[in-house]
Amino acid sequence: MLPADRHQQILNRLQEHGIVHIHELSQTFSVSEMTIHRDLDQLETEGHLRKVRGGAVPIPAPALASPVETCFMCHTAPRSQTQMTLHLSNGVVQRACCPHCGLHGLMMLGDQVVSAFASDFLRGNAINAQAATYVVEPAVAICCTPTVLAFQNKSDAERFQKGFGGQVLDIARTLQFLNQAAHLKSHRKKEM
């Protein structure tokens, strides 16, 4: 099978199922997983899909996006240096205004999330949310509270912390912190 034919069949499967998996494509087309990786890389470069861990998801059509996108959690307009995106298994991309909302969405949506990207607070580039380092509750309030900021490098997060305070945490500890903060907030509301 020619690569162009395989690419078209990959796009057809992606449109039909909302996600494609490298291992399954490799078996279906009787080619190596590396060949599928290269196919997906080319299709991503051409703007047809977005690669995620273990496969690919479609890129939503611009016509389907609302003209003014807001955070799916708090409905605030996302800013480039704080936004976070969650890519779901059905091809939907949920945009959050900040890591606080994005990570709450990650906990809420669970297994539906196939990939999550945060904006590096210093540079504004997209980074894998799982690999990011977070500064929680710095002395500056940027968006939602408690403030959570994402950094690509732990050393950047530590330098930011020296100037603005807060805690430097990995994603697991940040999720735990947010979960506890939400629990305390809920408990306080019940007491009132």
Task: Explain what the structure shows.
This protein is α+β, with helices and mostly antiparallel strands and 192 residues long. The protein has 2 domains: 3-58, Orthogonal Bundle (Arc Repressor Mutant, subunit A); 84-191, no CATH class. 41% of the residues lie in helices and 21% in strands. The chain is built from 6 helices and 10 strands, in the order H-E-H-H-E-E-E-E-H-E-E-E-E-H-E-H. It has helices spanning 3-17, 22-29, 33-45, 99-109, 154-164, 171-191; strands at 20-21, 49-52, 55-58, 84-88, 93-96, 113-119, 126-128, 133-136, 148-151, 167-169. The strands form 3 sheets. A 4-stranded antiparallel beta sheet has the order 5-4-6-7. Strands 1-3-2 form a 3-stranded antiparallel beta sheet. A 3-stranded antiparallel beta sheet has the order 9-8-10, sandwiched between helices. A hairpin with a 4-residue loop joins strand 4 and strand 5. Helix 4 (99-109) crosses helix 6. The longest helix has 21 residues, at 171-191. The N and C termini lie far apart (67 Å).
Tell me the number of strands. 10
Number of domains: 2
Which residues sit in consecutive blocks of at least 5 with pLDDT less than 50? 61-67
Taking strands numbered 1, 2, ... along the chain, how are they ordered across the largest sheet?
5-4-6-7
Shape, per Cα inertia axes = elongated
Largest sheet at a glance?
4 strands, antiparallel
Helices and strands, in order, run as HEHHEEEEHEEEEHEH
Q: Rounded to an integer, what's the Rg over CA atoms?
A: 19 Å
N-C termini distance? 67 Å
Q: Strand pairing plus helix content: what structural class? A: alpha+beta
Overall pLDDT metric: 87
